Prior knowledge:
- By secondary structure, the protein is an alpha/beta fold.
- It is 37% helix and 20% strand.
- It has two domains: 169 residues, 3-Layer(aba) Sandwich (Rossmann fold); 97 residues, Pantoate--beta-alanine Ligase, Chain: A,domain 2 (2-Layer Sandwich), CATH 3.30.1300.10.
- The protein is built from ten helices and nine strands.
- The strands form two sheets. Strands 1-4-3-2-5-6 form a six-stranded parallel β-sheet, with helices on both faces. A three-stranded antiparallel β-sheet has the order 7-8-9.
- The longest helix has 16 residues.
- The protein binds adenosine monophosphate (AMP).
Amino acid sequence: MEVVETCAEMSRLSWSSDRPLGLVPTMGALHEGHLSLVQRARADNQTLAASIFVNPTQFGPNEDFARYPRSLQRDLELLDAEGTDLVFVPPPHEVYPDGFDTWVEPGSVAEGMEGAARPGHFRGVATVVAKLFTIIRPDRAYFGQKDGQQVAVIRKMNADLNLGVDVVTMPTIREPDGLALSSRNAYLTSDERETAPAVYRALCAAEDVWRRGERDAGRIQRAAHNILGREPLIDAVDYVSIVDADTMQPVETVHDGRPVMIAVAVRVGTVRLIDNVTKL
Ligand code: AMP
């Protein structure tokens, strides 16, 4: 496994690698969710590349960039054990040199939900992913449905800018109690950790009312709110949204055959948890 810190060296190695080349972009602190992407990418491609980069431009000024968990040595061991060929671990100034001043600005797909709660977040995500696609030129790139709006933003950017990457979405990996794996779960206190599965229970409750025939988005959302409202350690529900699975625009009625995503974001203490279910 080659561990590469510069854009020039990463391009040199990846452009001359056996194809197809699959890329798994991450911010590190790897868990089974990340590894499910790595395993699929390993199986699909001749060359497997991963990146570990805690991207400063996708964090707001009052967010957790400084304390985001970092465990580089362990991450490299895990990637090596999965048969990764190339790992890109650039320092921030390699990606954003002095004077960097060009951005990828996603449109309406990035306006609601996480885009509304975290101004500038998806501009940072789209810009860094565009740069990774350009530096590495993967044939395929793998993303988790856990960050459902992020996948929609990347798919739209990839199409609108003709980047030509096959974007593969992988299912959300969960703890046995339903909590979606996330590097940020490490911030939870033990009480908060006990509360956290309520997010997935709320999504399941919403899905359940839909299965029983409810098609009004407001009433489906209410089922989720009822579960979340019972949890004293949930300090705020940022949103419960039902959106078109591609455009991320809110829907009022869930029509059969038109996929939607039900997405939740809550705050538990200092931790923000997001999750979603799709394909209703
Ligand atoms: P991150 O390191 O949080 O930027 O995540 C890197 C990639 O792993 C993203 O495409 C995430 O959507 C994906 N990912 C994170 N958590 C999970 C999970 N629990 N299941 C599946 N994919 C995940």
